[in-house]
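User: Show me a protein chain along with its predicted structure.
Assistant: Here is one chain, sequence first, then structure tokens.
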Amino acid sequence: MNVTIVEVKKTENWDNQISQFNGSLFLYSSFLESIEDSEKKPVFFEFRNGNETIAMLSGIIRPVNKTSEKQLFFFSGIACRVDDDLAFAECKESLINYASQNSYARVIFETYDEINYRKVVSKHIKIARDRSEFVIYLDTNKEEILNGFNPNVRRLARKAKRQGAILKYGQSSTLLNKLYDLMEQTHEERTAKYGNNQITALPFLDYEKLQKLLDDGLAQFCYIEHEQEILCIQYNIVIGNLVYGLLMGTNKKGYKLGAPSMLFHEVIQDYREKGYIRYNLGGVSMVDKKLEGIKKFKLSMGAKMVESKQENTLFLNPPLSRLNFILICKQFISNLKIPRVIKKQLLKLTSLFLKGTDVY
């Protein structure tokens, strides 16, 4: 197979095509155009074997932090129509060669969705982090969905409903403010138990971008209300027949009532009835022990844990390629099983050389 890569300039039919390729919702032009700004420009690629398009990919062009260089960033992997690891590998190699030849400093695959991830070895991928997504496959019968719930989830959902809790949906700015409030409360609760954790899930999706996705009809809230108070709320990206659970917050009263269990118990069934085929509850790092509770909770909803590594190239061209040895050192140190204090100091040392260029 002789794969060539072509940058697509006319994208009017992109979303229709990407759905036919079983592409992630993060590959849709509507999503990328909603988060576009002066530092994030959408870019679209087709991979062709002769005259046949065998794969598609889209992402954003980003500046390398604190430099005038540019890099390619992807929220998902390549959507490949051909079920062939060799073809997928050729697509990835052609992309990286294209990036190098067109003066892109780096290629970053964050793969926040499992749909288009394939475990294919590439000589150019030097930095990888273990991550898994937790996915509810909704294109099945109702009984299988219900059987997927842990008995304790069903018990808590019944308890919350008996006490008058109600599931609602919405898209207002007021709800976005409430989400941030409840996320902060969740963060405080988890920090007290497990140490400090980041609140946000995906890069670049700040308050303004979250509101833009809502305004463009690409996102919605589902939330549990009890006695006219919102106890638990989730922000979902909803494109085509796919759903991605991006952010969630719950207060102490909500945890006590079992609001998160009720929310998922009801929403999963709702989405199935509405014809959605995948509901990704979001992914987590597989090496952070502080996230074990989140993993168990998502699995208790009947979610399948699916590998979806984050993969980055080193810097592809001078002058930044001179920093590649430091990047490799940083990856090595990150994987070392040594006291946290020592690891922190060693990573701080690498940062003195990198000067933020590896932060995207």
